[in-house]
Amino acid sequence: MSRVLNLAAEDEVLDYCANETCGKEIYFGQLVTKIGHELVCSGKCLVEKIGAVTIIAGKGGV
Ligand SMILES: [Zn+2]
Predict the structure, then answer these.
(1) 15 has which bridge partners?
(2) Total Cβ atoms within 10 A of residue 1
(3) Taking a C-beta distance cutoff of 8 angstroms, is the pair 28, 14 a contact?
(4) Number of domains in the chain
């Protein structure tokens, strides 16, 4: 039972991903990226949050 209690503590939601299209829960102890005072859950969300897109250089794209 103590193991279950430990998991409960670690599953505490601190914040939500600042990428509005994601919005996932950010848990205590999770590795996240901070932008100013906001947190995003992954590199992909960081890129979307700042409005960057990945394209192939020299192959066009908008
Ligand atoms: Zn996210």
Answers:
(1) 26
(2) 5
(3) yes
(4) 1
Containing structural domain, residue 22: 2-49
- Render pLDDT for 23-44 as a digit per residue (tens, 0 to 9): 999 999 999 999 999 999 999 9
- If you measure from the C-alpha of residue 59 to the centroid of ligand 1, how many angstroms do you get, rounded to a whole number? 28
Supply 35's token pair: 């932008």
Q: Which two tokens stand for residue 26?
A: 């950010």
Residue 24: strand, helix, or coil: coil
In the predicted structure, residue 14 carries a pLDDT above the cut 60: yes
Rounded distance from Cα 7 to ligand 1 centre (Å): 22
13 in any annotated domain: yes
Range scoring the smallest mean pLDDT among 1-5, 38-42, 53-57: 1-5
CA–centroid distance, residue 38 to ligand 1 (Å)? 11
